[in-house]
Design a protein that fits this description.
The complex is a heterodimer of chains A (about 130) and B (about 400). Chain A has about 130 residues and is α/β, with parallel strands linked by helices. Chain A has helices at about 15-30, 40-50, 70-80, 95-100, 110-120, and strands at about 10-15, 35, 55-60, 90, 105. In chain A, strands 2-1-3-4-5 form a 5-stranded parallel β-sheet. Chain A is globular and about 35 Å long. The two termini of chain A are about 20 Å apart. Chain B is of the alpha+beta class. In chain B, about 50% of the residues lie in helices and about 20% in strands. Chain B has 13 helices and 11 strands. In chain B, helix 9 (about 215-245) packs antiparallel against helix 10. The chains are: A alpha/beta (about 130), B alpha+beta (about 400).
Chain lengths: ~130, ~400
């Protein structure tokens, strides 16, 4: 899943395949380069192996293997230095769980235009329009 | 559509000059709408819709904030799909009062175009995309002069009635200046209307789960987790509709059709799961009738899809003869939900649970057994529920 003419990549980490695919399609059609990841464990592997620093991570909370909050803590405490301070925004229906973290979040169901606005803010270089 | 436009224009000319309703010049639905307008003595020369006062409009918007909130993301998607054309996507209440619109700047500020508080019921504004949709309780398209009042002849409008628990609660409508543009919005409008209905169901579900908090906080937390899972499908559908709105360029027409089909499927999934979740939260027993237990089990397993995935547990229903129980439908769903959850909580990660329905002879009845199929020492029972024969609400009917 790639998009020509863009540089920075957004990571969409969500276990719901339909939602993940839908969000990636929306962001791609809005001109962003997107990498879908289906759970926290796969995200750890990706962050550990890839030299690429995403411009933004859109992160779900409730996922198998490793949930979004565990992944967030791993990133901040044990992530490779190049991604330890990467921008993360939770996109979740479990607002109560992320509110305590003090991390920006969007409640599901999301307003798609707000997600695009967010991507434009963090990944300006990647947007076609 | 040019022929349609010319015929309707001639029909309107004849009606306003000699009072004739020219049947042959109008499409059947339009003709029926004009007949109603004629009987209601609507003035066809009216230049614009009547409107509520500012204070009454504010009260109306306050009362129907739920509907406006539900419609907003879909109106924005419709507006985006219309692109740079003169257009408006509108939401109206069940009486035809316009609640909100999203359009291009020129249309939104046009004093002759309806705005929040405009009254679009047929008896006031004649045949139009909102009022005629409400009168017929079905999808309506009106091209230019098919509108009954002259003030609306510049527009081509479509409307879809919105249902909440089988009651019409409003209309989602589009209005554009070009017929071709209206046709290109048709698919999105139909799916968007289902999206608005799903958003209303979501609000009902959230209200029901919040209602549990005072009486049983633990139960409320359990159902809130389920609510979070259920709205995933709605989230996906909302995003798909927004994507489809961005696929208005010709080379993406096929992608738009595919995306809308996926959105529709996700909305159906959401609706099915939300209805089931509402049954589980409800205090009443539901209608007592024969129920196929296998189907109820499958429905609850479907509802628990995310929970199963997060826990890394699979549940399969063993094949068998269909079992039917005469039971309150909500009670049966709650019983199946409880026993599946009990099994799920006892099952280790990575395990496979088998659900089996079996008639029992002594005592006579039906049993749902859940066993751990992947236990190293063979199948291990996890949970069971028994329905006895003999009373009209619990008996095995066949």
């Amino acid at each position: 899943m790639t998009c020509q003419g863009s540089s920075a990549t957004l990571f969409v980490i969500d276990d719901d395949a339909d939602y993940r695919e839908a969000l990636c399609e929306l962001l791609e059609w809005a001109g962003f380069r997107v990498l879908p990841v289906s759970n926290g464990r796969d995200a750890v592997a990706l962050f550990s192996a890839s030299p690429e620093r995403p411009c933004l991570v859109l992160l779900d909370v409730r996922m198998p293997h490793m949930d979004g909050i565990q992944l967030y803590r791993w990133l901040r405490e044990h992530g490779p230095p190049s991604v330890r301070d990467v921008d993360v925004v939770f996109v979740t229906a479990a607002e109560d769980k992320v509110r305590a973290l003090g991390v920006p979040f969007f409640a599901k169901p999301v307003d798609p235009e707000k997600i695009i606005g967010l991507a434009k803010t963090y990944c300006r270089g990647g947007a076609a329009a | 559509m040019d022929r349609l436009d010319r015929a309707a224009r001639e029909a309107w000319r004849r009606y306003t000059s000699v009072g004739a309703l020219p049947h042959a010049l109008l499409r059947p639905n339009t003709y029926r709408a004009w007949e109603r307008c004629h009987e209601l003595r609507v003035d066809p020369t009216r230049p614009r819709a009547e409107a509520l006062s500012t204070i009454d409009t504010e009260r109306l918007l306050g009362r129907r904030a739920d509907l406006i909130r539900a419609a907003r993301p879909y109106m924005l998607a419709l507006s985006r799909a219309a692109g740079g054309l003169r257009h408006a996507a509108m939401i109206a209440d069940e009486g035809g009062a316009l609640l909100a619109l999203a359009g291009d700047a020129e249309t939104e500020t046009d004093p002759n175009f309806p705005s929040a508080g405009s009254l679009l019921a047929e008896e006031i504004a004649g045949a139009n995309g909102v009022g005629t949709t409400l009168a017929g309780r079905c999808y309506v398209e009106l091209v230019g002069p098919e509108h009954f009042i002259g003030g609306f002849h510049a527009f081509t409008c479509q409307g879809v009635p919105l249902l909440d628990s089988d009651r019409v609660v409003g209309v989602l409508s589009t209005s554009v200046r070009e017929v071709a543009a209206s046709e290109s919005l048709h698919g999105i409008l139909l799916v968007a209307s289902q999206g608005v209905e799903a958003e209303l169901a979501r609000e009902r579900l959230e209200h029901a789960v919040r209602g549990l908090e005072a009486a049983d906080p633990l139960e409320a937390r359990r159902f809130d987790a389920l609510r979070q899972d259920v709205i995933q499908a709605l989230s996906a559908a909302r995003v798909r509709v927004a994507s489809a709105a961005r696929a208005s360029v010709p080379e993406r027409v096929d992608a738009r059709v595919r995306t809308l089909a996926l959105a529709q499927r996700e909305l159906e999934t959401f609706k099915r799961r939300a209805d089931l979740c509402l049954d589980l939260v409800a205090a009443d027993e539901g209608e007592v009738r024969p129920l196929v237990v296998d189907q109820v089990v499958r429905g609850v397993v479907d509802l628990l899809e995310t929970e199963l995935s997060v826990r890394g547990v699979g549940i399969t229903l063993a094949a068998g003869e269909p079992a039917v129980l005469v039971r309150g439908e909500k009670v049966l769903r709650k019983e199946v939900f409880r026993v599946l959850l009990e099994a799920l909580e006892a099952a280790p990660t990575g395990s496979e649970v088998v659900a089996r329905l079996a008639a029992t002879a002594e005592p006579p009845g039906l049993e749902l057994r859940l066993v751990l199929a992947t236990a190293p020492t063979g199948a291990r029972p996890l949970a069971r529920h028994f329905w006895a024969l003999g009373d009209s609400r619990r008996g095995v009917a066949g």
